[in-house]
Amino acid sequence: MRKVLLVEEDALLREKIGNILREERYYVIAIRDRVLAMNCLEKEEIDMILVREEILRENSLELLSFARQRFSDIVIIVMGTEEDSFRIRELLAKGIYEYLSPPFTPSRILSVMRRAEERISLLEENKDLKRRMVHRFSFAGLTGVSEKMQRLFSLIIQVSQVKRPILLLGEQGTGKEMVARAIHQYAFTHEEPFFKILCGSMGHDFFRNGILIEDGRSQNLNEIQEGTLYFEDVHLLPYSQQTEMLEFLEEYRFGRKGGNLRVIASSEVPLEEEVARSAFRSDLYYFLSAVKIEIPPLRERREDIPFLIEQFLREIAEESGREMVKISKEALKTLIDYDWPGNVIELRNTLEGMVILSESSTLTLEDIPEHIKKGFGREGVLEIKIGTPLEEVEKLLIKETLKFHRFNKTRTAQTLGISPRTLYRKMEQYAIEDELK
User: Fold this and answer.
1) Which of 37, 43, 232, 242 is 20 to 30 A from residue 294's alpha carbon, by CA?
2) Residues with Cβ within 8 Å of residue 67, at least 6 apart in sequence
């Protein structure tokens, strides 16, 4: 049953129209003025408003603005006094659905109400389609319509059936932990534990006496027989502990002691580079990379961005208890064009900030942070003074390109048009590694 707010100052006409609608099984709230209408909109879920034009125009169309802000898809029908094309076009441009002029006969009123019903049904179908589309292209919390993400979804199911170590490679914010948890979810039929281990903050005797906590339960690392060990940012593991990790993994042999243990590691940087500069043990790398999965950055799957935005805006609305906001076509295009160096996490955080700071029901270009509108994610700009020594220019260019690519040396070398070996030599020549620590 559709809920209709009828706003008409004439008591007799208000009663007449209300009865017509109630006979057609509409739930009608009939009131006399703008203030009461706004109070009602604050407390009730309204589908349609049938309002006298004079009331709607009071206080610079305040009721119209308030209704649109409260319910972005609400259908507003205006009851006017006479046909005036200029006034009608003005109100239609402001967002009303239809203008109804006298006489207000049952047939005319019900005809416009049926069209309004069709409009609401269409909007609901579109919303439902979007929800189903997002669900269709979601997998274990990950969202993607792109070929790369669909391939990733298939890989997750495939590798979850093997007990070999799995290495996840991807930039910061691409969702490596979510992929690890998805693999764990498909690897086990029961609720085996998932242990997340931060390699950058691991104790010096972790592989001898490490204690892991999952769901409030603590367990000694060497007593774990089932579940998943997820080593996050394995590239940050000190060299001295890499030997201990290798010994630990070789001892377990992944199930040869009767257990059902899976090991997944992740890295933000290509471990081949770390091996090449003797920062990572080659034998540990080969042990971990039996199965290697690369998670694509957001800039390589831009077709996923609209679906991610839809998903994140819905999540933000649910978490904040606010109505879900929309996003304008111009704003959406700007967000799609941006390169997102922080990937999915940066997109999510950006949208949350935009929603918090916006006072409108629709996000526009004005709500987008300046650095995104200026395209800093797409194109880095260096300002160099005339007269700067060539060596200083080269050093600055290498440093800023490294930062832009989040210290991925392979991509940095490709961008600069030099070999990785030349990049390492230049970095050593200018002591860039020391400055970036």
Assistant:
1) 242
2) 41, 46, 49, 74, 76
**What whole-number distance in Å separates Cα of residue 326 and Cα of residue 126?**
14
Q: Which residue's structure tokens are 């030997």?
A: 243
Residue 390 C-alpha from the chain's centroid: 42
Residue type for position 403:
K
**Looking at per-residue confidence, does 430 or 138 come out higher?**
430
Report how far apart, in Å, the C-alpha atoms of 415 and of each of 173, 233, 340, 380, 419 are.
21, 24, 17, 12, 10
Give the list of residues 6+ apart from residue 379 with CB closer than 8 angstroms, or none. none
Q: What confidence category does residue 360 fall into, taking pLDDT thresholds of 50, 70 and 90?
A: confident
H helices of 234-357, where? 239-252, 271-276, 282-288, 305-320, 329-337, 343-357
Most confident of 127-136, 139-148, 160-169: 160-169
DSSP classification of residue 161? T
C-beta of residue 296 within 8 angstroms of C-beta of residue 333: no
275 vs 197: CA distance, rounded Å: 22
pLDDT at 232 over 90: yes
Rounded CA-CA distance 252/254 in Å is 5
Confidence of residue 52 (pLDDT cuts 50, 70, 90): very high
Helices (H) and strands (E) in the chain, counts: 19, 16
Indicate yes or no: pTM above 0.85.
no
Domains of the chain: 3-127 (3.40.50.2300), 153-295 (3.40.50.300), 300-373 (1.10.8.60), 390-436 (1.10.10.60)
**What residues contact residue 112 under an 8 Å CB cut-off, 6+ apart?**
77, 98, 100
Closest by CA to 181, choosing from 291, 264, 289, 276, is: 264
H helix runs in 368-431, sequence order = 370-373, 390-404, 409-416, 420-429
Amino acid at 353: G
Query: Which tokens belong to 206?
Result: 């972790």
Answer whether 46's CB lies under 8 Å from 74's CB: yes
pLDDT at 313 over 90: yes
Give the strand pairing for 138-139 and 217-220: unpaired
- How far is 297 from 340, CA to CA, in rounded Å? 8
